[in-house]
């Protein structure tokens, strides 16, 4: 490896969100009724997702949105409370999701804009392209073309 090469690490946010949800469920998390009523966008599928609901990245991301942060933090003014810590966690996850899921150079939300790198020959970076899902979608199309039950040969793949 070249001594001056830069290495950048990025989160795969859809899979990170799914991991967070699985860990919360494994540790038997509880959500208070006041929080649910304060965030009308949350549904039962957000709180207790079924097997296929967990795979829905959009719904999972909604559970870590700014509106969930606002609904969670508005009911508690105590700085060191568990509810405030949860609200801060939700806000951090929301920010990370926006930053590592950029799809445009220009967005009214600056956190959702492509990374402006201007170094190493890269001018900008759409971070959503660094996730595993686009690659999984390509392989899904290939499997669909050749039948779901078999793996295409290298010649067919080409």
Profile the largest sheet.
Answer: 2 strands, antiparallel
User: Order of strands across the biggest sheet?
Assistant: 1-2
**Count the strands?**
2
Name the structural class: mainly alpha
Radius of gyration: 20 Å
Unreliable stretches (pLDDT < 50, length at least 5) are: none
Fraction in helix = 40-55%
- The figure for the number of domains is 2
Principal-axes geometry comes out as: globular
Termini separation comes to 30 Å
Order of helical and strand elements: HHHHHHEEHH
* Continuous helix count: 8
Strand percentage: 5-15%
- On the 0 to 100 scale, the average pLDDT is 78
Protein name: Transposase
Pfam families: TNP-like_GBD (PF21788), TNP-like_RNaseH_C (PF21789)
InterPro entries: TNP-like_GBD, TNP-like_RNaseH_C
Domain Transposable element P transposase-like RNase H C-terminal: 131-158
Question: What does this molecule look like?
Answer:
The protein is mainly alpha-helical and 158 residues long. The protein has 2 domains: 13-99, no CATH class; 110-157, no CATH class. The chain has 8 helices and 2 strands. The chain has helices spanning 13-26, 33-38, 44-47, 57-62, 66-73, 82-99, 132-146, 154-157, and strands at residues 115-119, 122-125. Strands 1-2 form a two-stranded antiparallel sheet. Helix 5 (66-73) runs antiparallel to helix 6 (82-99). The longest helix has 18 residues, at 82-99. It is globular, with a radius of gyration of 20 Å. The model has no long low-confidence stretch (mean pLDDT 78).
């Amino acid at each position: 490896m070249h001594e001056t090469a830069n290495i950048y690490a990025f989160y795969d946010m859809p899979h990170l969100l799914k991991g967070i949800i699985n860990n919360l469920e494994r540790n038997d998390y509880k959500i208070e009724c006041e929080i649910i009523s304060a965030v009308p966008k949350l549904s039962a599928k957000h709180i207790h997702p079924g097997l296929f609901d967990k795979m829905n990245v959009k719904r999972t991301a909604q559970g870590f949105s700014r509106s969930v942060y606002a609904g969670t933090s508005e009911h508690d003014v105590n700085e060191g409370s568990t509810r405030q810590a949860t609200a801060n966690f939700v806000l951090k996850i929301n920010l990370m999701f926006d930053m590592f899921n950029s799809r445009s150079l220009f967005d009214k939300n600056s956190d959702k804009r492509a990374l402006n790198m201007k170094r190493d020959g890269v001018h900008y970076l759409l971070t959503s392209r660094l996730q595993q899902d686009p690659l999984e979608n390509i392989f899904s199309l290939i499997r669909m073309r050749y039948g779901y039950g078999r793996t295409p040969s290298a010649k067919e793949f080409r």
